[in-house]
Amino acid sequence: MGNLNKEIRDGDHPDITEERLKSTFDTHKMAAQIYNSQRAADRRNEITSAVLKIPELQDIKPLPFLSREEKVEEAARKIGILSEHLYDLVNVNDGAELYHLNNVVIGGEGNPLALHGVMFIPVLQAQATDEQKKKWLYRAMKREIIGTYAQTEMGHGSNLRKLETTATYDKATEEFVLNSPTTTSMKWWPGNLGKSTNYAVVVATLIINEKDYGPHSFMVQLRDENTHKPLPNIEVGDIGPKMAYNATDNGFLKLNHLRIPRTNMLMKHVKVEKDGTYIKPPHAKMSYSAMVHVRAHMNNTMAYFLASSLTIAVRYSSIRRQGHINPKEPEVKVLEYQTQQHRLFPHIARAYAFSFAGAETVRLYEKVKKDMESGETELMADLHALTSGLKSVVTYLTMQGIEQARQSCGGHGYSMASYISEIYGIAIGGCTYEGENMVMLLQLARYLMKAAKAVKEGKKVEGLVGYLSAPDNRHSLIDRTPEKSYDTYLKTFEHIARQQIFRAFDKLEKMLTSGLPHSEAWNKCSVELTRASRLHTRLFIAQAFARRVHDVVDFHIKEALDDLLHLHLNYELLDVASYALEDGHLCGEQMNFIRSELYRSLGKIRPNAVSYVDAWELSDMELRSVLGRRDGHVYENLYKWAQNSSLNRTDVLPVFEKYLKPLMMSARKNSKL
Ligand SMILES: CCCCCCCC/C=C\CCCCCC(=O)SCCNC(=O)CCNC(=O)[C@H](O)C(C)(C)COP(=O)(O)OP(=O)(O)OC[C@H]1O[C@@H](n2cnc3c(N)ncnc32)[C@H](O)[C@@H]1OP(=O)(O)O
Ligand SMILES: Cc1cc2nc3c(=O)[nH]c(=O)nc-3n(C[C@H](O)[C@H](O)[C@H](O)COP(=O)(O)OP(=O)(O)OC[C@H]3O[C@@H](n4cnc5c(N)ncnc54)[C@H](O)[C@@H]3O)c2cc1C
């Protein structure tokens, strides 16, 4: 049968092997839960093994030692080699396999095809007519052309209806004239726009006969397909270095009265006829599909980033010994400290929770995508509400978790050798891209306020907001019933979300009744509204976690997930408990119970801690972390890693002769005077 933890190897650091031997579950079976099937988990490992056999696909040196230009070049080099091996390595129609291949070979810092795969192809799939697909999509899929999604401008990202780039229809020539009239109207941020791409789907405000029809998508060729030089009337370049994600050339684009054929507007759902007649789409927001696509997948990418930093931190905490719990005994692994466990374990639970919530979201997304093909749009609002809330909450909590992972590694966490700071920099971009978090929480709040209104009017609401119509207990039953089901916790989360949703609703209604215009009242309630959105979303995450645990069949996996869920529910409830204490739903005695359950949970998780992170099956190649090495041999490799520093190429740097020597000489001379 072998070891339950599949990462055990001879020669590993004994402290980490000791942890793995304690595992109560099969880590590869757990991987099947995380990646949604045993087959998917197997495929990940097969892909990793195959990549390890191709020497040209290995990093030329640790990425933190590369300059920005070298990072861009290195990612492009690997994309080139990957193209040769692609069909042998993965099923190219499987997004998860492609994503894994990218993570192993290139990592999260980006590559020239990042936006091509994440947004350019999806937007063509969703919004191009069959004829347009023949012209661009199939070429894009074969990588004959490389594209991006150019929407955000220097002056506007969140408020799409105020994009300044115009696409004015010229009936006489049957062309659109694309123009960036001001500095602020320049496209600013699109990934890979700077240097890599030769096409872009540009989002611009459609004008026909001087009437503004709002944002629409247009295919624009940016560069010559052979020379890669920008075409006439186009200025394009890189926006400069960012906090992280620097292998990606996020770019700017200025369009100077550029003419494109009428048929370059993506017209699957919406049309502009030759004579300028506008035919509206079945749903006004169908053109936002590429954003919804990314938002729907972001839970899983965030779960991955969070799990990566926790794998690093937990493995390192199992070999790092410092201080004593019992002064008579040797120094302990820092993982023994309750503070360390409290710092890390709840985030492990969140990574699992985000992955399970992510799987449900992707399922809904796939359904809505299929519906949209036939013009059916009923579930679009539900999906938009769900993805808006999740995108905001999950990115924010991921940011918190990664930072805790970094701090838990002490000084070495701050070194790029941990790689956590790079993961952090990449992940927190998610708080901003695909809709700034506050803006998206307020989108969900619109949906919640509609549901609250319906309930107040005596109507029954269903689906994601069904709990607003369901009966509520005045007092939480946590620690009040003999039965120890998670329902009592979930009911308490429901109560908290419901109370906050109605609190925000009542406040808004009061202001509206007092005569305040809706937009002003909305702004004055917006902090309460975002709170409602967060609580609703955190309820969904907890429910998704409970649903998954409920469905698991394997006894040991179920038991291990059950422990994590128990930790999750107690930790999350403590985090939001003030809402339930305010109206007496929870009392002090129940708070003590929840706290003691949390501490008990930490102890229960402790023996499996390394196995919970190992179950993500993140190879050394993809983690790129000295602290997170699978074998636990951190210290000797930290020393080796530092040898890569270009500062170590000579014992004496030129700055000594140039600046330090004169400085010290002059100081010595002065002290002799
Ligand atoms: C395989 C995939 C892997 C994924 C990997 C991810 C990792 C990749 C790493 C890096 C890639 C980075 C990519 C980043 C790319 C970008 O950032 S692209 C730019 C993204 N930009 C945004 O997200 C802009 C945010 N703003 C908006 O989306 C909109 O402006 C808005 C939704 C905030 C408002 O739109 P507006 O048209 O003004 O509508 P409203 O008046 O506010 O609302 C009117 C009604 O429309 C409903 N609605 C809005 N959007 C949708 C939608 N998408 N679907 C359905 N319904 C929608 C809204 O709820 C309103 O309904 P009610 O009137 O009934 O309340
Ligand atoms: C790493 C990265 C990659 C990106 N890639 C792309 C890409 O490929 N293509 C692309 O088109 N774009 C891309 N973007 C741009 C990104 O989508 C936008 O930056 C994002 O949508 C936020 O918009 P903004 O910059 O206008 O923020 P702003 O709206 O200016 O936000 C500033 C502040 O104003 C607040 N705010 C704004 N509006 C409201 C409101 N209505 N109510 C309350 N508060 C409000 C926000 O909450 C925030 O605190 C990328 C950005 C990043 C960081």
TrEMBL record:
Residues 487-664 form the Acyl-CoA oxidase C-terminal domain. SUPFAM superfamilies: Acyl-CoA dehydrogenase C-terminal domain-like (SSF47203), Acyl-CoA dehydrogenase NM domain-like (SSF56645). InterPro entries: ACOX_C_alpha1 (IPR055060), Acyl-CoA_ox_N (IPR029320), Acyl-CoA_Oxase/DH_mid-dom_sf (IPR046373), Acyl-CoA_oxidase (IPR012258), Acyl-CoA_oxidase_C (IPR002655), AcylCo_DH-like_C (IPR036250), AcylCoA_DH/ox_N_sf (IPR037069), AcylCoA_DH/oxidase_NM_dom_sf (IPR009100). Pfam families: ACOX (PF01756), ACOX_C_alpha1 (PF22924), Acyl-CoA_ox_N (PF14749). GO terms for biological process: ascaroside biosynthetic process; fatty acid beta-oxidation using acyl-CoA oxidase; lipid homeostasis. Its cofactor is FAD. FAD binds at T152, G191. Pathway: Lipid metabolism; peroxisomal fatty acid beta-oxidation. Residues 288-449 form the Acyl-CoA oxidase C-alpha1 domain. GO terms for cellular component: peroxisome. Its main location: other. Keywords: ATP-binding, FAD, Fatty acid metabolism, Flavoprotein, Lipid metabolism, Nucleotide-binding, Oxidoreductase, Peroxisome. It comes from the Eukaryota. Residues 26-146 form the Acyl-coenzyme A oxidase N-terminal domain. The keyword DNA-binding does not apply. One of its GO terms (molecular function) is ATP binding. It is found in: Peroxisome. The active site is at E434 (proton acceptor). PANTHER family: ACYL-COENZYME A OXIDASE ACOX-1.1, ELECTRON TRANSPORT OXIDOREDUCTASE. Belongs to the acyl-CoA oxidase family. This is Acyl-coenzyme A oxidase. It comes from Caenorhabditis auriculariae. The lineage of its organism: Eukaryota, Metazoa, Ecdysozoa, Nematoda, Chromadorea.
